[in-house]
Design goal:
Layout: E1 7-11, H1 16-27, E2 31-36, H2 40-51, E3 57-61, H3 67-80, E4 86-89, H4 106-133, E5 139-143, H5 156-176, E6 182-188, H6 194-197, H7 200-208, H8 221-232, E7 242-246
Parallel strand pairs: 1-2, 1-4, 2-3, 4-5, 5-6, 6-7
Bound molecules: NADP nicotinamide-adenine-dinucleotide phosphate.
NADP nicotinamide-adenine-dinucleotide phosphate is lined by residues 11-12, 14-18, 35-39, 42, 63-65, 90-93, 115, 143, 145, 188, 190-191, 193-196.
Length: 255
């Protein structure tokens, strides 16, 4: 793969999908900043792995749901590495307890919306303003989920947060195209990470016994990262607002 210069910020880059994305961007030649919520050890090991490619790498603890943290994150990335060319809105959470629509709490709803939707919405606003000022042909890549369109009645808050992030992609793609900034939505299916560890047995059963996906395996962070690298490198210059399914074919209607 050809080396790509530039600076990327991957939110939630300490573990799982975000870590896979950060590593592949570093391998592709970008300087990469990751943000994370609390797991210092995971962030340190992700940073060390990125450094092994000989590029600049930093890890910053910053709660994506906090306006003050988002502001500080951007300032710290810019002063350590320079202006951001690629923003990957990856940080996200599942509900701490799956609850039926008729029982689910407002507290869980507020938390999911704040982390999964409001955080990336306003982080993108901050980064986009800077990209415009710097006349950078930046890329913004949002990690949504098949839950943006597949209804799971035991985690309505998660589904709504991802559907919102999907609309956010369309909005920013439209608003930023005149500035040469392309915006993409990567829509992962079932990916093996800490997030899905608690429901591993359920998805093993759905994938291997119940024909959930035409491609019968779990997805990996690398599967998602490859799609992100293609967008980040500018391999899709005439596409914006595009949804890229990385889901083993889950989205196909079958008969
Ligand atoms: P994960 O393994 O649980 O990792 C989550 C990452 O986000 C960690 O780096 C975590 O930091 C960070 N994070 C969590 N809350 C944060 C906050 N408030 N502020 C900043 N960072 C925060 O999750 P994953 O499975 O990789 O999921 C990554 C993204 O892909 C999420 O948006 C998720 O919804 C989406 N997705 C996942 C799947 C799947 O099957 N796994 C499928 C579709 C979409 P710490 O390490 O400090 O906790």
């Amino acid at each position: 793969m050809s080396k790509t210069a530039g600076i990327a910020l991957v939110t939630g880059g300490s573990r799982g999908i975000g870590r896979g994305i950060a590593i592949e961007l570093a391998r592709a030649g970008l300087n990469v900043a990751i943000s994370y919520a609390s797991n210092d050890a995971a962030a340190k090991s992700a940073r060390q792995e990125m450094e092994s490619f000989g590029r600049g790498a930093i890890a910053i603890k910053a709660d994506i749901a906090s306006a003050a943290d988002r502001q500080r994150l951007i300032v710290e990335v810019s002063s350590a590495l320079g202006s951001i060319d690629v923003l990957v809105n990856n940080a996200g959470i599942a509900p701490s307890k799956r609850a039926d629509l008729l029982e689910a709490s407002e507290e869980s709803f507020d938390q999911l919306i704040n982390v999964n939707l409001k955080g990336p919405y306003f982080l993108t606003q901050l980064v986009a303003r800077r990209m415009i000022d710097q006349k950078s042909a930046g890329k913004i890549i949002n990690i949504t989920s098949v839950s943006a369109y597949a209804a799971s009645t035991n985690r309505g808050d998660y589904c709504i947060s991802k559907a919102g992030l999907s609309m956010m992609t369309k909005l920013y793609a439209t608003r930023l195209a005149p500035h040469g900034i392309n915006v993409y939505e990567i829509r992962p299916g079932v990916i093996e990470t800490d997030m899905t560890e608690k429901v591993k047995e359920k998805y093993d059963n759905l994938i291997f016994e119940n024909d959930l996906t035409p491609i019968k395996r779990w997805g990996t962070p690398l599967d998602v990262a490859r799609a992100v690298v293609a967008c980040a490198k500018g391999s899709l210059p005439f596409s914006t607002g595009q949804v890229i399914d990385v889901d083993g074919g889950f989205h196909l209607r079958r008969l």
